């Protein structure tokens, strides 16, 4: 075991002392050669698992050809990835970024530009309680995360919060200054709370009736995570603007802002970024999209998601826990008790990585190509921890 200079990094979160040095598929290894089964995957980032050959090969090949010509010029991978995203979605144009927060910041700016040009300077965006859109000042302001409320004041003005799945709460906030409604189809950080398809359909009708833009933050739900390439495809409607991050890079920093021609209103100088549309990152994104967009791949995600959901429901029944929420391979188990951090810590000791977005909730975000045997391994670990801890009443 190597001694590491932990103090050289800013202390921004509690981390175990393990230092990961290698990954393959659903597994990670630390510098003590201990293996971990990963059901977090960088918070739904590694959609093809750790270090898949298709991404490694794309990165290597592109690195030998061109690192970056600067965003003042076109490069081939960004053009190809942009074309592929447009061809596989309801959108007409793409702006590449480096993180989900940056993509969401771009969506906010695009909506406000639209308000300036087409709605008499309207700038307010309705977002939702419990929502999470990133850690820039504007995206924190758009988020409905309680822990953000006292931080980094003053916040960016112009965001009103509605209640998820309550269309009347949205309608009551609309006024002459409103330009858009922004939400995650499934609120991940607050504990995997889905917007119903019916609510999203009603939201589309409401925004169209008032001439408002509809923005879907698909940072976590996009790129096949819910069994469709993009979550909006489940609903029969399409937003005006969509943001992607996490899975689109498969492990490298890449994000995207997509918009219809109607909503695409940036003018020269409005938006940019030194590394935005970087050829190496876009080459990785193209490799990811080519894999994830295959019909058999998405069918497998749906089937595997149903299996994981079923197994979690059995665990819940055995231990007297709550329901299972989510879609595809973005799922949460309601523990009913504030025991999630303890379970995560015990699972880590046993070589399984889990996530607790809330004290009473476990979130599961495995690789989209996770194997059935790996699901069984994780379930056995979780079941054993619950049994040994005696943390919940057995009912079966």
UniProtKB/TrEMBL annotation:
One of its GO terms (molecular function) is pyridoxal phosphate binding. It catalyses: N(2)-acetyl-L-ornithine + 2-oxoglutarate = N-acetyl-L-glutamate 5-semialdehyde + L-glutamate. Pfam families: Aminotran_3 (PF00202). Its EC number is 2.6.1.11. CDD domains: OAT_like. GO terms for cellular component: cytoplasm. Pathway: Amino-acid biosynthesis; L-arginine biosynthesis; N(2)-acetyl-L-ornithine from L-glutamate: step 4/4. It is found in: Cytoplasm. Signal peptide: none annotated. Pyridoxal 5'-phosphate binds at residues 100-101, 132, 217-220, 274. N(2)-acetyl-L-ornithine binds at residue 135. Binds 1 pyridoxal phosphate per subunit. Its cofactor is pyridoxal 5'-phosphate. Keywords: Amino-acid biosynthesis, Aminotransferase, Arginine biosynthesis, Cytoplasm, Pyridoxal phosphate, Transferase. GO terms for biological process: L-arginine biosynthetic process. The modification N6-(pyridoxal phosphate)lysine is found at residue 246. Homodimer. May also have succinyldiaminopimelate aminotransferase activity, thus carrying out the corresponding step in lysine biosynthesis. This is Acetylornithine aminotransferase. The gene is argD.
């Amino acid at each position: 075991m190597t001694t590491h200079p932990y103090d050289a990094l800013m202390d921004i979160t509690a981390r175990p002392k393990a230092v990961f040095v290698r990954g393959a598929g659903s597994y990670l290894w630390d510098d003590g050669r201990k293996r971990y089964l990963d059901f977090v995957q960088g918070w739904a980032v590694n959609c093809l698992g750790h270090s898949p050959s298709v991404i490694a090969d794309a990165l290597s090949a592109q690195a030998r050809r061109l690192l970056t010509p600067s965003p003042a010029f076109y490069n081939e991978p960004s053009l190809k990835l942009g074309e592929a995203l447009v061809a596989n979605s309801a959108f007409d144009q793409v702006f590449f970024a480096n993180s989900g927060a940056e993509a969401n910041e771009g969506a906010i700016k695009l909506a406000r530009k639209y308000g300036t040009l087409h709605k008499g300077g309207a700038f307010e965006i309705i977002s939702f309680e419990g929502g999470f859109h990133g850690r820039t000042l504007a995206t924190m302001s758009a988020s409905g995360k309680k822990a953000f409320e006292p931080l980094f004041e003053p916040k960016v003005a112009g965001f009103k919060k509605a209640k998820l799945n309550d269309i009347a709460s949205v309608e009551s906030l609309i006024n002459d200054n409103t330009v858009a409604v922004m939400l995650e189809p499934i609120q991940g950080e607050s504990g995997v709370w889905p917007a119903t398809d019916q609510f999203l359909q009603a939201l589309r009708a409401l925004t169209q009736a008032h001439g408002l833009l509809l923005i879907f933050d698909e940072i976590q739900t996009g790129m096949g995570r819910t069994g469709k390439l993009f979550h909006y495809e489940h609903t029969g409607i399409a937003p005006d603007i969509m943001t992607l991050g996490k899975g689109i890079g498969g492990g490298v920093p890449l994000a995207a802002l997509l918009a219809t021609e109607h909503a695409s209103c940036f003018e020269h100088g409005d938006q940019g970024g030194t590394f935005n549309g970087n050829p190496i990152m876009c080459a990785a994104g193209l490799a990811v999209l080519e894999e994830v967009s295959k019909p058999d791949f998405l069918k497998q995600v749906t089937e595997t998601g149903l299996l994981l959901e079923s197994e979690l429901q059995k665990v819940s029944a055995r231990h007297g826990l709550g329901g299972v929420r989510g879609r595809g391979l973005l799922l949460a188990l309601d523990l009913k008790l504030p025991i999630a951090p303890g379970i995560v810590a015990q699972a880590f000791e046993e070589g399984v990585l889990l996530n607790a977005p809330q004290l009473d909730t476990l979130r599961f975000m495995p690789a989209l190509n996770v194997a059935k045997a790996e699901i069984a391994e994780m379930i056995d670990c979780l079941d054993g921890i619950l049994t040994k801890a005696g943390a919940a009443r057995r009912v079966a």
